[in-house]
Amino acid sequence: MEHAPPFLASLVLGLAFAFAFGIAARMLRMPPLVGYLVAGVAIGPNTPGVIIDGEFTRTLAEVGVGLLLFGVGLHFRAQDLLAVWRVAVPGATAQVAVGMLLGAALGMALPGLSFGTALVFGLALAIASTAVATRALEERGQLSGEAARIAMGWLVLQDLIVVLGLVLLPAAAGQQGDGLGLSILIAVAKLVAFAALMLIVGRRLLPWALARVARSGSRELFTLSVVVVALGVAFGATTLFGVSFALGAFFAGVVLGESDLGHQAAAETLPLQRIFAAIFFVSVGMLLNPATVLDAPFTSLLALAVVLVGTGGATFVLLVLLRTPPKTAAIVAAALAQIGEFSFVLMELAIGQGILPAALRGPILLGSFGAILLMPLTFRLLTGLGSRMRGRILPARDARGRFVATLPRMENHAILIGYGRVGVLVAAALRRHNLPFIVIEDDRKRAEMLRGQGLPVLWGNGTQPEMLEAAHAERARLVIVTLPLAWEARRVVELARAANPRIVVTVRAHQDAEVDWLHDLDATGLAVMGEREVALGIADFALQRMGVASSTSQATVDVLRKRRVADAATAGLGV
């Protein structure tokens, strides 16, 4: 009997354990990330039982980090930072400084750590996880509110600080005095050269190339091309410029994110990001040696305290000082009171470069484990504190304008999904009355044509949440679904209602069951069956030509429209 290759066994077992422990974490009302980390501990070399190939897993994990940062880059917008810059820039900078100094104070209390090494340890304890924060806000229905905008701006600043750290750490490793300064200068010069190449050449070349692939109409080729761009740019950055793999992927995401391809690229790569991110967290869990945590339990608990105070507590205090409403400050602080993927990346790089001792891996990992496990309690405590503080401090002046101003966004608009034979007539009616609407169209050539006509259009598939988010579904009044497939229409309706429970829905239907489904979901909505509308149009014309008054004819049509086809055929009209 042939045995599976060790690499294949490692991949299958790693994913299977991640799934099993992720399910267990969700059953315990914890983020799946916790399950992935525990799965890594379970199959790692430091615990008895199943052991998988760590080197292969770390290679896949590096791909996961690259795709993760590629996704961050796709969503990175300079305007997002500008929208909340009066809060995010000073607040996030001060918070990272506070957390880093608290961590450094803990590090200096440990034997054998210099001040510089202790600062790196502190930085690893001061950076919140974007993935965990976003998930926490989403679960509490806060992802589209003011708290989310501040949190995203805050996280962008933290990400930029980590990116700078990823550049400087390899340069600083093993260098002293003039050598250190020269190494840092060379590293920064390489980064600037790579960034300039991406912004000058890549900014034009990559979107142009992907647009050509998109016009081919093949979703498979477009998905493949996005992955090739993400990993190819990352590999080129490492090989040619000495820039980290993750940072190269981040720049590729930033470049694509500025184009109209960004939303669909994010949607196409999201499943891969989730899978490889799971492998990344499994690989991190494999690094944890429970014995090292038991060897230094006091240090591990203090690291957890630094995370909660230096990130969560400092964020809350700073936001209140910046005159953000306490309730909003509490939500942001609770979402950020944890550390995750970027802390792990920084930690592994520092340990690999010999800057941090491997013994500090346990306290950092326990700080992440504990903070994520305590998030429900953290939310409860901080939001309670924010409620008690309401009215006891000066209210923020023009909080949405002066302190957390947002860019102009379309509101009370319609979202038209699909611009085929049905969508084109709907759009014509909306344009005739100058009503605001956004089109989501997955045919690249058609989307480019609409953009040339001055219509607000997003290219991509409307069944993916990123597209509805980009169309500001949470602010829309109406979503019009003209897609021909029933499952696609249902998916869009579910996403739209999740983003905005008050949104009104109208869909193109082909069967009575689809009409009944929408009516049960939203009595104010409308499901239109093509064949029925053809029949009703003919019936209306026939009745009026036979002498029935137009108002009576319209009333008859309205009654028939609300009935199933079989019922209309057998029941008396009673009009």
From TrEMBL:
Q: Which domain of life is it from?
A: Bacteria
RCK N-terminal domain location is 411-529
- Where does it localize? Membrane
Q: Which residues cross the membrane?
A: 6-26, 33-52, 58-76, 83-106, 112-133, 154-173, 179-201, 222-255, 301-322, 328-351, 363-382
Pfam families for this protein: Na_H_Exchanger, TrkA_N
The protein's matches in PROSITE patterns, at most eight in alphabetical order, are given as:
RCK_N
Please give the Gene3D superfamilies that the UniProt record associates with this protein: 1.20.1530.20, NAD(P)-binding Rossmann-like Domain
Please tell me whether the keyword tRNA-binding is annotated for this protein: no
Into which family does the record put it?
Belongs to the monovalent cation:proton antiporter 2 (CPA2) transporter (TC 2.A.37) family.
Q: Output this protein's name.
A: Cation:proton antiporter
Give the species this sequence originates from: Pararoseomonas baculiformis
